[in-house]
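Severity: low
Component: inverse-folding endpoint
Summary: output formatting inconsistent between runs
Steps to reproduce: submit the following C-alpha cells with default settings.
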C-alpha cells in the first residue's frame, strides 16, 4: 500500500501546464576577457578581448534518474524491425537503439530560444520509407504563451532536421496530448501529409511538407481548444481518410481530403482512431461508448462489458485484423483489454511488472494514464506501451499473466527545482517536481536507490534544499503536495540520507526557498509564495514572521533564487527582489535594504554567496549581467564582459588555488563570429572570479530545454550540473580537471 498522495500523481502532472519558461540562446568557442569591476564596459575595452578558438569537444551527459515524465505517443515503423520512436510532453522526441537498449534523444540541438520545440504535438512516420519522419513541436496554444509551434522533417531517422513552412499554435503540454494522432502521412502517397491543429483547422501538404495549405472545405468549427485530435488513413482504399474533431464527431473524406462529410452517429469524444487491415475503423472515447467500430456504414458499440471508464489506448494487430488492444485511462492504474474477434468478446489482461528502475513504486508500477499501446509489426505477440513515467514492453501479450518490462534508459524527463552538491557526503541531491527528489547515492550514471520520501517525509515536489556551511551533514528541504495544497519540509542530520518532517509548518503557505545558517542548523529562513517570509530557530518546531521583506513571488513554477545565507557569519542572510538587495544580521528576524537600483527590475535572477568567504555576494540578472559585492551587499561591481548571466554557480577550486571555480550559463562579450556568431548563450568557467573565461559548453547539446538551476561540485573540481524543465539534470566533468 502506498501513501494516499501517490495515487494522485496524475493530477500533479497536469499542473505542469502552468509552467512558463524564459527565452534565451546558446554560443560556442573559448575566450578570454579582461575583467573590469565597474558598472559598464566600454566598446574600446570590449575590442581588447583576446579570443581563442576551442577544438575540444565538451560532452554533457544526463544524470541517471530514470524516466519520470509523460511519454505521450509511441510509433513503430512497419518496414523496419526495432525502429521505434516516442514523443513526450516536455522532453522532446527519442528513437530506440536496440543494440544498447536505450533511447536516443533526437532534439537536443534546440537552443533555449527554441524551448517551445521540446513539447511533442505529433509524430508521423512515412510508412513507405523508414528513413523519413515528421514531428509537430510546440508547447502551448494558450494566449499567454508567445510562441507558435512548427513541423520538422528528417530524412535520416532523426539525426538531422529541416524546419517546414507551417507555424501554428500547438499544445504538446496541454490537455489531450496523450491522444491523437494529429500528424499523419498517407500510406498510398507519401507526399500527402495532414496535420490537425487545435485552433486553426486542418492543414495538408501534397509535396512531402515543402508547402502547406489549410483545408478550407473541412466543415467543422473548432471551439474547445482540442481541435482536430485524430486522423487515420485506410491503406486499402487510396484517398479514404478519417478525421476526429473532439467534441463534435468524426468526419470522412474519400478524395484525399478535398471534400468531407460528418459520419452520422459518430462518437463525439473520440480519443484515438485506427483503421484495421480489413478497413474496419476502431475508435476509443472518453464517454459512452468507450470503444466502437465502424464498417460498411454501420456503428457498433463494442465496449468491454461492465466497464464505464474512459478509453484511450488503441491498437490493431497489423497481421490479424480482428486482434485488438484497448486500455482505460485511469488515475490509479490502467485496465488493458484484448480481443481476437473484432471486439465481440474481451479478456482483461492480468498484469505483472518487471521493474528495472530502482525507485519506481506504487502507482508507477500500475502504468497510470496509458497514452499509447501498440502491437509490434515485426515481432509476433510483442506489444509496447507508454504512460506517465516511461515506456513498457511485453514479449507475449497472449500470456495468461502479461509481464511488462520498463525501458527508460536514456529517457530523462524530470523537472528540476533545486540542486545541492555539498562539500562532504553524497555528490548530489536534487529537488524535483512530481517525484519529490533524490539522494544520488549511486553516483551520476546509475539510478538512485530511492526517492527522498522513501527515507522520511514524502512530497510531490521539493522546491529548495540547503545545508549548514560549517556542518554540511545538517540539511533542510522544503516542498509540498500541490494536488491538495499541503506544504511543509524536513531536516536531515546525515547529509540527506534520511529526513525528519518539521514538527509544524504554517497551513496554506507554499514554501519557495530556504537558507540555513552557516553555524546553527536549527536556524533557517523560508520565503513564501505570495506571502511573508518566515523563520525558525528550533529546526521547524515553531515559526515566526520575518520583517522587512516584500511578499514572495507566486510559486511553484518560479525558479529565481532570491535567498542565501552568508557562508561564515551565522546570523547573516541576503535577499534580492525588484532591483533591491536586503540583508539580515539578526538571524533572519528582520531585513533592511542595503543596496538599491542595481540594474533595473529583473524577475529572472540568482543570488548566491561565495563558499567560505564572509560578505561575498553575487547576483546574476540575466540580460543585465553579473554583479559582485565584497562587503555584504553595501556596494556592487559589475563583472566586465558578461553580457548575459542566466545561471551561475560556485564549485571546488582547482589544485593550488583557494578561489572557487565560477560557472556561468550566459553570454560573454566578443566581436568574433567564432564565439558569438548568433548572439546566443554558452556555458563557461572562470578560475579568477570572472577575469578570464573558458568555454565548456557542448555545441551539439546546448541544454535548451528550460535550464533553470546551476550547481557545481564542492568535492570535485570541474564537475558542474544544470537542471532543466523537462530533460532532468545534465552534468559536465572536465576531462583535464
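Observed output (run 2 of 3):
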Amino acid at each position: 500500500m502506498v501513501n494516499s498522495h501517490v495515487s494522485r500523481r496524475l493530477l500533479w502532472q497536469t499542473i505542469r501546464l502552468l509552467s512558463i519558461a524564459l527565452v534565451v540562446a546558446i554560443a560556442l568557442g573559448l575566450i578570454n576577457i579582461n575583467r573590469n569591476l565597474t558598472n559598464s564596459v566600454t566598446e574600446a575595452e570590449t575590442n581588447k578581448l583576446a579570443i581563442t578558438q576551442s577544438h575540444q569537444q565538451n560532452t554533457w551527459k544526463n544524470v541517471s534518474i530514470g524516466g519520470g515524465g509523460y511519454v505521450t505517443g509511441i510509433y513503430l515503423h512497419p518496414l523496419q524491425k526495432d525502429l521505434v520512436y516516442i514523443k513526450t510532453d516536455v522532453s522532446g522526441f527519442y528513437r530506440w537503439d536496440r543494440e544498447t537498449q536505450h533511447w536516443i534523444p533526437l532534439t537536443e540541438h534546440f537552443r533555449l530560444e527554441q524551448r517551445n520545440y521540446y513539447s511533442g504535438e505529433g509524430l508521423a512516420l512515412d510508412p513507405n520509407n523508414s528513413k523519413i519522419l515528421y514531428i509537430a513541436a510546440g508547447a502551448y496554444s494558450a494566449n499567454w504563451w508567445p510562441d507558435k509551434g512548427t513541423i520538422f522533417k528528417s530524412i535520416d531517422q532523426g539525426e538531422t532536421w529541416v524546419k517546414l513552412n507551417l507555424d501554428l499554435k500547438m499544445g504538446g503540454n496541454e490537455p489531450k496530448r496523450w491522444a491523437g494522432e494529429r500528424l499523419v502521412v498517407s500510406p498510398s502517397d507519401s507526399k500527402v501529409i495532414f496535420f490537425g491543429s487545435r485552433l486553426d483547422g486542418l492543414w495538408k501538404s501534397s509535396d512531402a511538407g515543402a508547402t502547406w495549405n489549410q483545408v478550407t472545405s473541412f466543415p467543422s468549427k473548432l471551439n474547445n481548444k482540442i481541435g482536430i485530435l485524430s486522423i487515420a488513413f485506410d491503406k486499402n482504399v487510396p484517398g479514404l481518410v478519417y478525421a476526429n474533431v473532439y467534441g463534435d464527431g468524426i468526419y470522412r473524406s474519400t478524395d484525399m481530403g478535398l471534400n468531407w462529410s460528418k459520419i452520422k452517429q459518430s462518437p463525439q469524444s473520440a480519443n484515438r482512431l485506427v483503421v484495421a487491415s480489413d478497413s474496419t475503423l476502431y475508435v476509443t472515447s472518453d464517454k459512452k461508448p468507450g470503444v466502437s467500430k465502424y464498417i460498411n456504414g454501420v456503428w457498433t458499440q463494442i465496449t468491454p462489458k461492465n466497464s464505464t471508464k474512459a478509453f484511450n489506448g488503441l491498437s490493431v494487430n497489423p497481421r490479424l485484423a480482428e486482434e485488438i488492444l484497448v486500455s482505460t485511462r485511469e488515475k490509479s492504474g490502467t485496465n488493458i483489454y484484448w480481443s481476437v474477434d473484432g471486439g465481440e468478446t474481451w479478456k482483461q489482461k492480468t498484469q505483472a511488472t518487471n521493474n528495472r528502475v530502482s525507485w519506481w513504486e506504487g502507482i508507477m508500477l500500475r502504468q497510470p494514464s496509458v497514452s499509447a499501446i501498440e502491437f509490434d509489426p515485426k515481432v509476433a505477440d510483442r506489444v509496447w506501451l507508454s504512460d506517465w513515467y516511461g515506456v513498457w514492453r511485453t514479449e507475449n501479450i497472449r500470456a495468461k499473466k502479461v509481464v511488462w518490462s520498463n525501458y527508460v534508459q536514456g529517457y530523462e524527463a524530470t523537472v528540476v527545482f533545486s540542486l545541492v552538491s555539498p562539500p562532504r557526503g553524497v555528490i548530489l541531491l536534487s529537488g524535483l517536481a512530481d517525484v519529490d527528489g533524490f539522494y544520488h547515492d549511486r553516483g551520476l550514471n546509475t539510478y538512485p536507490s530511492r526517492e527522498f520520501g522513501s527515507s522520511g517525509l514524502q512530497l510531490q515536489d521539493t522546491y529548495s534544499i540547503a545545508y549548514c556551511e560549517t556542518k554540511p551533514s545538517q540539511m533542510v528541504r522544503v516542498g509540498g503536495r500541490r494536488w491538495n495544497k499541503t506544504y511543509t519540509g524536513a531536516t536531515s542530520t546525515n547529509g540527506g540520507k534520511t529526513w525528519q518532517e518539521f514538527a509544524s509548518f504554517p497551513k496554506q503557505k507554499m514554501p519557495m526557498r530556504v537558507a540555513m545558517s552557516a553555524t546553527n542548523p536549527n536556524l533557517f529562513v523560508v520565503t513564501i509564495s505570495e506571502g511573508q517570509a518566515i523563520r525558525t530557530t528550533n529546526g521547524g518546531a515553531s515559526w515566526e514572521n520575518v520583517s522587512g521583506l516584500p511578499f514572495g513571488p507566486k510559486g511553484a513554477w518560479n525558479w529565481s533564487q532570491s535567498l542565501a545565507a552568508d557562508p561564515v557569519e551565522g546570523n547573516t542572510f541576503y535577499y534580492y527582489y525588484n532591483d533591491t538587495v536586503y540583508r539580515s544580521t539578526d538571524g533572519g528576524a528582520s531585513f533592511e535594504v542595503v543596496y538599491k537600483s542595481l540594474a533595473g527590475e529583473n524577475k529572472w535572477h540568482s543570488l548566491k554567496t561565495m563558499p567560505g568567504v564572509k560578505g561575498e555576494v553575487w547576483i546574476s540578472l540575466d540580460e543585465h549581467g553579473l554583479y559582485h559585492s565584497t562587503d555584504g551587499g553595501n556596494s556592487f561591481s559589475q563583472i566586465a564582459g558578461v553580457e548575459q548571466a542566466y545561471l551561475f554557480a560556485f564549485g571546488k577550486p582547482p589544485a593550488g588555488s583557494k578561489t572557487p571555480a565560477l560557472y556561468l550559463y550566459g553570454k560573454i562579450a566578443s566581436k568574433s563570429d567564432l564565439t558569438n556568431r548568433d548572439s546566443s548563450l554558452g556555458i563557461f568557467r572562470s578560475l579568477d572570479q570572472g577575469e578570464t573565461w573558458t568555454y565548456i559548453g557542448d555545441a551539439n547539446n546546448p541544454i535548451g530545454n528550460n535550464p533553470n538551476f546551476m550547481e557545481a561540485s564542492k568535492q570535485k573540481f570541474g564537475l558542474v550540473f544544470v537542471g532543466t524543465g523537462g530533460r532532468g539534470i545534465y552534468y559536465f566533468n572536465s576531462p583535464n580537471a
